Structures are given as C-alpha cells and as structure tokens.
Amino acid sequence: MARIETDILVSGGGIAGLTAACAFGAAGHRVICVDPAPPVTEAADPSSDLRSTAFLQPARDTLIAAGIWDFLQDHATPLQIMRLADAGGEANEIRKVADFDASEVSGMPFGWNFPNWLLRRELLNRIDGLANVRFMPGVSTTALTTRETEALVRLSNSQSVRASLVVAADGRNSPVRSMLGIGVKTWRYGQKALAFTVSHTDPHHNVSTEIHRSGGPFTLVPLPDRDGKHYSSIVWMETGPHAKALSEMPPEDFNAALNARSCGVLGKLTLESRLTLWPIISQMAERLSGQRTALVAEAAHVIPPIGAQGLNMSLADIQCLLELFSETDDIGTQSLLDRYHRKRWPDIKARVTGVDILNRAAMAESPSLRDLRMKGLTSLHGLAPLRKVAMQAGLGNR
Ligand SMILES: Cc1cc2nc3c(=O)[nH]c(=O)nc-3n(C[C@H](O)[C@H](O)[C@H](O)COP(=O)(O)OP(=O)(O)OC[C@H]3O[C@@H](n4cnc5c(N)ncnc54)[C@H](O)[C@@H]3O)c2cc1C
User: Which of 34, 48, 76, 89 is most deeply buried (CB count within 10 A of its CB)?
Assistant: First the structure.
C-alpha cells in the first residue's frame, strides 16, 4: 500500500485534535487526523459526551483564525458573570457570594459555552470545507518511528504516513507519548465529577455559578433556553464513593440531592439527561515534545474542571505551535520543538499548580478550613485590583 505524505499527522480527534486539524489546515498545512472512535455529534446518542466546554476570550481568537467561530457563534451562550458561592457553614446554605463581572476587565463576556457533542459536529463541518485536511475516523496510530528529518507513522488500517510533524492529541493516556517514552507526573484526589444537563425554574442571566461546600466544586454553566425552559450544564465534583453513590440513585432521590447541593440558586433543578462520571486527576508530561513530535491538550496536561481552564490551555498549545510554524518552512525541527516546550511549560506548570490548590481548597471537609476558604474568597473579591488580576489570570490573556 502506498505511503501517504503529509505535513502534519494529528493523532487523536477529540475536541482538541479536531480543533488542531482545522487550525493547522486553515494556516495552509496538509493535515491528516486519525481517531479510533467515530465522533458522537447528537445529544440523544447514548454515548454522547454530555459535558459542555466554555471557551474563554483568548481561545476565540484561535477559533476565528481557524474559521471555526463562524460555525459556532450562533450556538454560543455567553458567560458574563462568574459567581463563586460559599456554602461551607454548618447549615447547607449560601453564606457568601462573590461576583466577578467581565465588564470590569473587558467589553466582552469571559467566554462562551457549547455542548461538547455540538462542538464535534461543527468542527467536522469545518473540516469538510478544508481540502487540505483529511479526518480518518475508526483509524488509530499504532507505531511511530522518527528521524531527524521526518516521522513515519503506522496506522491501524495498515497504511503508513510520512509527516514533517506528529501532533499527539490522543488524550491523558496518550499512546504516542508512550511510544516516545515520555513519562508523566500524576496527582490523584480520590475524586470524580458527575456531568449532566438540568432544566431550572429561574433564568441564569448568563451567570456561571460555582458553589463550594466539601468534596469539590458544584458548577452550573449556562446553556441556551429551549421550548420555554431554562437549561444549564452541571459539573458536580465529589469524593469517588459519594459520586458513585449519587450516580446510582433513583431519579427522585438524585433530584432531591441535586437541589440540596445547589442551595436553590436557580430555583428548582430537574435532571434532563443521563449522568456521566469522570475521574479527576492532575497530570503533566515530563516534556512537551519528542523528535518530530509535539504533545498538546490532555496528552500534555490534565487538570480538574475548575475555571474552564482545560481545553483553553489546549488551544494555547495549538496557538503557540501556529506562531512557531509561521516563522519557518520546516515545521518539525528540534529547535522549533524545543522552543514550543520552553514557551508553553511555565504557563502549563502555573495553571496545573493553581488549579490543584483551588481543587484542594474546594474539597475541604473541616469547618476551620472551610472558614479559611471563605475568608480567602472575601479578601480576593473585596479588593478591586486583586479581583481584576484574578480575572485576567483566569482568562489566560495572551
Ligand atoms: C467533567 C469535565 C468538564 C470539563 N469542562 C471544561 C470546560 O468547561 N472548559 C475547558 O476548557 N475544559 C473542560 N474540561 C477539560 C476538557 O474536556 C478536556 O481538556 C478535553 O476534553 C480534552 O480533550 P483532548 O482532545 O485532549 O482529549 P480526549 O477528549 O480524551 O481526546 C483524545 C482522543 O484521542 C483518541 N485516541 C486514543 N488513542 C488513539 C490512537 N492510538 N490514535 C489516534 N487517536 C487516539 C481518543 O479516541 C480520543 O478521541 C472538562 C473536563 C471534564 C472531565
């Protein structure tokens, strides 16, 4: 079988891999993207990913340049206010609310929220319009050999590909990272996240609310209204056994637990989807590149879902590579890949560390630690300059 020639092979067609394929293709590179799992693009599909992703301001610039934003903008729910609420007192009720309003730092919302299944559908629509990008679902990367001048990839359909660069976007257990012998450092919390969709009796007014009590944050992220009803997606983090017990409850018991945990912030909540359960870890690859290979997204870094940082860090990886590509004709050289590692490493390390601290604070069980957490939030929110610095840092403005 003839060998396929390309500039970039993207291994992994999750949201990060598909976005990378569009972005590199829009910049004029020939791209092949492979993934063993065909993407699920319908909410009702039993294997649909019921999470949503909030793209923050800097991510939008990358999506516009890649020609993806045109496909997404009509489906966007803006996030104007990030509300942090503390419910860590003796009674299960909100005792402190701190609003972070995007209008204090910019003329735009903090970000825009989209269901993951919809993102996959629109990314595939964008790829359809790019003649230099080929997506191969049902095909995986099975072997990688690199030399100074090229990467040779063996695919599960017996084809082989010669590429200037392999971009590993194949997830937290990245096979490409293993093939390169790059290790990872992993932090475990004994925690899981439940992700699902709810309807609620009160409108969300484009406010995303994160409620802290114990076990981890409970976050409501706005979705568009539908058929006269208000909707939000929820990520509810708890210790592993508690999350499992919640996921196995009959619907009426789950709805009761859900409304107790939400402290009534959007009125009465009703579960409107299946529940999906996600293990929570932090992880960093020891290096962001190998010969003729760059690691991006969860192949390079994993963090708990707090402050919508995960995929936004992945878009920063893609943007960094695009900027480096624009300075050279050979996009896979060692010097380019070394610069990629040096440019991205400090930001990734700072965010993995910062989100780790926030998650441990949100998990706090003891009343004294919970009181300390509330004092920290009060101080951060009460001082306008500090509040603005926190908002800019959360946005990851580049
Ligand atoms: C509950 C939850 C909520 C989240 N919410 C947000 C949010 O609001 N905002 C945000 O920015 N981030 C969020 N995140 C993080 C975000 O979801 C992840 O960063 C993102 O999904 C990771 O995408 P990925 O493409 O790197 O990995 P994955 O989605 O895991 O994709 C990896 C792909 O690689 C493929 N693959 C595996 N092996 C091979 C192989 N051998 N060859 C080729 N392909 C292969 C897999 O089939 C898969 O499709 C959240 C995470 C969780 C758990």
Answer: 34
